[in-house]
Write a structure and sequence with these properties.
single chain; nine-stranded mixed β-sheet; alpha/beta; two-stranded antiparallel ribbon; 2 domains
Amino acid sequence: MRLPPSKFECPRCGFGVLPRDEQCGRCGEDLKPKASQPVQVRLTSVKLTRGNDQEGSTSRIRTVETIQVGRPDSSLQVRTDELEKREKELRERERRLNVLSDQIEERSKEVRSESKEPKPSVDMDEVRRRLREELTRQFEPELEALQAQLDEKEAELEEARLKLQILHAGQEMEVVDEAELARITEEILRELRSQVGAPLKVTDPGVLRTHIPRLDEVLGGGIPRGHVVLFNGSPGTMKSTLTYTIMHRAAINGTPGLYLSVEQSRRSIMRQMERMGMPEASTNGKLKVMDMRELRKEMAEHEGNWRELILSYVRKEQEATGFKVFTLDSLESFKALTEHNFSRQDLKDLFDWFKSLDITVLVISENRSDDYDEANQGEAYLSDGIMEMLMKEMTDSRVQRWVRCVKMRGANADNRYYGMFHDGKDFNLALPLANQPF
């Protein structure tokens, strides 16, 4: 890229002109050099006087007429110098621009040559193969167990067929109805599938069944009766929903319970649980939900602080109804009702009082088990069982709810993390698809 030749400017309007132009093309200014103005110089006479001995002749210089001296116009000369200086600057700028233009052209050629080179592509087949191997490794134990159960049921089915053939071997049989045989076979297979997918049956009367798929297996059959169990987790981990579900299903199966909410109102709890598929009417009055407002009405004639009133109400209600499961929601709210610092001794007295009821107590806590300070907060050490619930961040846009039985005294519990899902009506537990986010 080359710039046009440099130009001068008109001294009147600044329009660009060439050095050979005699008149401005815009304003018509005369650009011809002007004639020098005459300079008048007037010399006066000079008289020199000396002594007689050295007296010299007196010289007189006569007046000389005006001498015409021509000089250039100084303003025009200054303007000419400025234009020459600017022309040099423009030429230097033109040279630099030409150099930059050459560099840009070379860089453009390099970029075009680089863009023509093919970029290495991602091997999607290798990615799919690795993902398939990882999933197979994660689910291989469960698949093997299910395959073993299927093989066992198929062997039983084959044995039943052989017995049927032996039974009718000596009898004259008419043509077999193929449609009836297919129907019977389909019923047998349907029954086998339901048995393979169903959890193990627990008949131990010393445990509280949760009636949640796979959770009873994780707990080794259920929650041992008389235990004080903590349900720890951050907001949103569905602690209240899980404990209420356990109590609701226990009430349906004939085990009465009391759910005490220190913060949330009873109306809000019942509306929320009804949307989750657990209406109050389905328990036939065996599950009672109480909030602080209702408790204040019940204990209007009693005196004492909030802690004493709550414990007195629970004791009175147990003697009246004989409930077997009690839930406190939550432990931190209960501590906040006391008029002094809730010490470790106060906490020990509270848990001893829970155990004196000789019932199963579920306590909702907002602290994680690994954050407890044994000197101040001993919930994790005083409780008989801990259910840890957390929000596991798998990726920036995907979060899963995980649950783990940290401990359960007197039970052979599974301490692994399980993914916990709720479809709007029921909880479902499954091993996570991966140990690390991907």
